[in-house]
Amino acid sequence: MMPAFTPEQDGFREEVCKLLCEDAVRAEIAQSRRLPYGEESGLLEVHRRLGKLGWLAINWPERYGGSGATIVEKAILTEEMIRHGVPDNVHSLGIDIVGNAIHLFGTEEQKQRFLPGLARAEITANVLFSEPDVGSDLASLATRAEPDGDHWRLHGRKIYNMKAQHSDFALCAARTSTGPVSFAGITLFLVPLRSMGVLIEPVWNLSEERFDLVTLDGIRVGPEDVLGEVDDGWQVLGKVLPLERTGLDHSAKAERTLAALREHAPPGCEERLVELETRVRAARLLAWRCVANLHEGRPDEVHSATAKWYTSETAKEVAVAAVELLGPRALLDARDPAAIAEGVFDAGFREAPGLTLAQGSSEIMLFFVATSKLGLPS
Amino acid sequence: MTATQITEIAGFFDEELAPIVRRMADRPRAQDADDGDGREVRAMVWEGLVGLDALGAPDTVRLAELLGSVLYQGPLLDTLTARELVPGDVLGQEPVALAVTDEPWRERDGAISARCSFVGFAAEVEHFLVSGGGPGPALVRAGHPSITMRRYEEAGRGEAYEVEFAGTPVAAWAGSATEWPAALAGARVRQAAYLVGLAQAALDHAVEHARTRRQFGQPIGRFQGVAFRLSELSMHIDATRLLVHDPGATAHAAACLAAASDLARTVTTRTMQVNGAAGMRSDNDAQLYYRRAAYESVRLGTPHRLRRESWDGRR
Ligand SMILES: Cc1cc2nc3c(=O)[nH]c(=O)nc-3n(C[C@H](O)[C@H](O)[C@H](O)COP(=O)(O)OP(=O)(O)OC[C@H]3O[C@@H](n4cnc5c(N)ncnc54)[C@H](O)[C@@H]3O)c2cc1C
């Protein structure tokens, strides 16, 4: 379900596209995808440009660095950034998850402290939820916040997070109390990362972007760093996580791969291409339905779960189909002289498995729809 | 190949050697990364396999499945194909790489010019068997100055090369043009068997993880959403295994390989899902199966093209 875009919104999309198609911007994006092995981009000049225009977090009020526009304009920006190949993790972590959580649940002081910097791409943030033994079952997290006067000291290990090496601070879930109900004693902290008491180590993986292992070794945080209420982090998580699950990032990724696939697929693949195209169109409609829900102030968790599942599975299918249809050429790295489509297929193939895991895995979405939509017993 | 021979070769890939074999041709992406000990290990494995008479094996399809199950990477499968066309006394016990090209290539005064993509282990074989698109399979000796090559940087991270022959002397014409399709069918069935072995190994890896990884207070394999999908994959593997070992498999080689190709990508993609973020780690074999399956499943043709060929071949 596409919202009826206003002429201003269409105009905004055009302006965004124009900026993203500028030679210098395109060169920077291409360059960011061909960095020496083991390196990856953080905030780019294009983020700063968009930030200066008040577009990066366009739906935030001007006093926080945005333009006071709606979630629809924000979604247009996200969609176009991904379609044009701007590496998206730094943006989605900093603005869509952490920034949004602060925007919705932060104190005025926290908003002043973090949002303008995030919106102008001067600082960035990441998310420290998962632990070695804690993935889907986030409520069982073990990182402890031990009282230290009216402050806390954090102890624990957070893994499979991304961009910690580039981030100034993190949204971190830790246990402030224990009790019979595991999700009851969780608190969310805004933790400075460039500090004593935080050790960041790379965990290399198959994709272009590394995971980080972040060891919290007694870093001190205060009441001013608590997002939401103490012991009540689960509530905030329950509201923020579905918000990021519009699936728009995944549908835009699928569109990008598909556009390149259309160009490079050998003759005879037309039927498969039509099948994929139709799926991608449906994915986009599901994603925009979520945006519309948010715009109307009626977030719908079943719609979000449906969109997350469908869009990420579709993006993964398109990525794997590129190998199936194009053969080994699809696997060539952007840095290989014979690479096609600037290596979009190879990077997409290596990123694909993560799409159906991060931000709530496919199985968790299926479980949610089974129990909440279909009413099956849990 | 006798059952004893297979058991002996399986025994050669014991618990100590198998993990080394899985990664013996996995070259991490890095600027000018060298091959570390990989090449030495591969040479040692080649010696071991030749010593166990892998080159004289009568049932090469079972051998190929075994090689897939340990994710063996090396010139053995190509060499077996070459030996169907070139007498063993010409090749001795030396490794051969198939260099197949779609592009037309030329022969003049007993020398050939061709450009071949995705040639495996080009830097460590003694011969190339150049075929497809040209006058007929030609055997050339490696190391001739007219041969240039470049290793690809690709997701499989293996030993795949672009090889150019610019006036390379032909050592022998390898069979007639009509013999090549039969040899290719054999190669495809072996490749299909290799992929079945690979898929089984990936599934075993996923099952092990499902048994041991706990979430929500229990092993994730206890969730039927995980367990049933693994069972489903196991059944697909079973079915495809029967297909590739069927005596009539070579008559349907292209279709068989297409089926195994889809199987390998599906199983390894699901293996990634079951393994969660941990499966993406460079030190986890799940991602290794995923990457290798992608490459191996399209090495001898995309499934789409193979199916088209299979259909056209019936007319
Ligand atoms: C690309 C990427 C980026 C990430 N970024 C971050 C980040 O920035 N910060 C952060 O904190 N974390 C991050 N993560 C971690 C992510 O949150 C976890 O991957 C996710 O929570 C799943 O946990 P897990 O990977 O440990 O899988 P597990 O929870 O161990 O699950 C393994 C498999 O079992 C399935 N499963 C689990 N429970 C059930 C069930 N009840 N029924 C059926 N199936 C089930 C899962 O769906 C999965 O397929 C990232 C992960 C990826 C892949």
Automatic annotation (TrEMBL), chain B:
| Highest taxon in the source lineage | Bacteria
Q: Which residues form the Acyl-CoA dehydrogenase/oxidase C-terminal domain?
A: 183-302
Tell me which InterPro entries the record gives: AcylCo_DH-like_C (IPR036250), AcylCo_DH/oxidase_C (IPR009075)
- Its Gene Ontology molecular function terms? acyl-CoA dehydrogenase activity
Q: Which Pfam families match?
A: Acyl-CoA_dh_1 (PF00441)
Mind listing the UniProt keywords for this protein, alphabetically? FAD, Flavoprotein, Oxidoreductase
Q: What is this protein called?
A: Acyl-CoA dehydrogenase/oxidase C-terminal domain-containing protein
Q: Write down the species.
A: [Actinomadura] parvosata subsp. kistnae
